[in-house]
Amino acid sequence: MQDAKVEISGMAKDGTWLRVQAVLVRDDRDEARKAMLEDPTGPKTLYTIGDGIFEVFKLTQIKALKYSFTKEPEEIA
């Protein structure tokens, strides 16, 4: 993977917003794949362990900032 950086953001009803920055790392453990498939929202109808196309990634080097129009950004993770 050439660029494994990811950013996720979302806004709360009070007008603050969260920005999460992280680096993705492939998790090749079958235990991780099994946990994903067992999740009720998981893709168990589409993928199986060992199918060669189902991959799991984990977030590393996580930095989360809470923003507001009235305050300085607050690091929360």
Task: List descriptors.
77 residues, mainly beta, 1 helix, elongated
Computed Rg:
16 Å
By helix and strand content, what is the structural category? mainly beta
Q: Biggest sheet, in brief?
A: 4 strands, antiparallel
Elements, N to C (H/E):
EEHEE
Order of strands across the biggest sheet?
A: 1-2-3-4
Quaternary structure of the protein: single chain
Low-confidence stretches: none
Q: How many β-strands, per DSSP?
A: 4
Q: What fraction of the residues are assigned to beta strands by DSSP?
A: 35-45%
| Total helical segments | 1
What is the molecular shape? elongated
Indicate the percent of residues in helices.
10-25%
- Compute the average pLDDT: 91
Distance between the termini: 25 Å
What does this structure look like?
With 77 residues, the protein is mainly β. It has 1 helix and 4 strands; from the N terminus they run ββαββ. The protein has one helix spanning 30-38, and strands spanning 5-11, 17-27, 56-67, 74-75. The protein is elongated.
